[in-house]
Specification:
alpha/beta, globular
């Protein structure tokens, strides 16, 4: 841990949901390993990690996961393991995680998926951006597929056939909760009664709704140099469909400004009333 002079640095809450259907689905050991082996955080005293596990197969059934949790604790980090069943969907899990993590948090939560391995220095780069933009709503890390054969089908830039911004901190309207730093003040603007309607099996979109509500009221940025590597399963836990984005427009029409919806979902701009923008 790093501490400058006598000034104690803050901690960072990390929220990780997990729902494994079989022992072969467990990837979180790699995620925890990356967090535990980071030798020093420039902006942080420690991590306080909350894991929300509601899959049929508990992640702690994997001995390597138990060992990584023990290593994190021995290195001075906090780990809170919550076992919840039956699953009520990822949206409910994220709500529970954020409620738990923000209770005694310093005001920011890093949302990580259980199959996203952060690169050395990535969290420092996210925190550096947080200092640069103190009033941010969310900051989005860069997600890279480890499997070169897997295409990230719900990339809005791909759908819009736009090139990714060359900037270190491009403005964003939507975020992927696989690697997302959110500010507690911004989370207060989220309508969970809308987001928790995403309960259909394999249906993606709850994090797009979550981030759009935030981006409608706060400035949000990507952090291009903060890299995370996605360890995809042989059979993905969800799939993207155009109908999911169309549903976003209908559910969010009354709580997110049309201009924000059009900017975030340009491939559906025709469905948004231009007169309202």
């Amino acid at each position: 841990m790093n501490c400058t002079g006598t000034q104690k640095l803050p901690y960072l809450s990390v929220a990780i949901p997990s729902c494994c259907q079989s022992p072969g689905d467990i990837r979180i050991g790699y995620v925890l390993n990356a967090l535990a082996l980071e030798s020093e955080y420039r902006f942080l005293e420690q991590l306080r990690i909350t894991i929300w596990d509601e899959g049929p197969v508990p992640i702690v059934s994997d001995r390597s996961v138990q060992l990584m949790i023990d290593l994190l604790v021995r290195r001075g980090h906090g780990v809170n393991y919550l076992r919840r069943q039956p699953s009520q969907g990822i949206a409910m899990a994220r709500q529970g995680l954020l409620t738990e993590s923000l209770t005694e948090s310093n005001g920011m939560v890093l949302m990580l998926d259980d199959d996203l391995v952060v690169e050395h220095g990535a969290i420092d780069r996210m925190m550096e951006a947080a200092h640069k933009f103190p009033d941010f709503g969310f900051l989005q890390g860069t997600k890279i597929e480890v499997d070169p054969q897997r295409v990230y089908h719900n990339d809005i830039n791909m759908l819009n056939k736009a090139q990714a911004s060359p900037d270190d901190y491009p403005p964003l309207y939507f975020g992927d909760a696989a690697f997302l730093l959110v500010r507690g003040q911004a989370v207060k603007s989220v309508r969970w009664d809308i987001i928790t309607r995403y309960r259909e099996q394999d249906m993606a979109g709850e994090d797009v709704a979550f981030s759009l509500m935030i981006a409608d009221k706060f400035t949000c940025h990507g952090v291009s140099r903060a890299l995370g590597y996605h360890l995809s399963l042989a059979h993905p836990r969800w799939k993207w469909e155009a109908s999911s984005d169309a549903l976003q427009v209908e559910l969010l029409r009354e709580v997110v400004r049309p201009a924000t919806l059009a900017a975030a979902l340009p491939h559906l701009a025709y469905a948004i009333d231009a007169a309202e923008r």
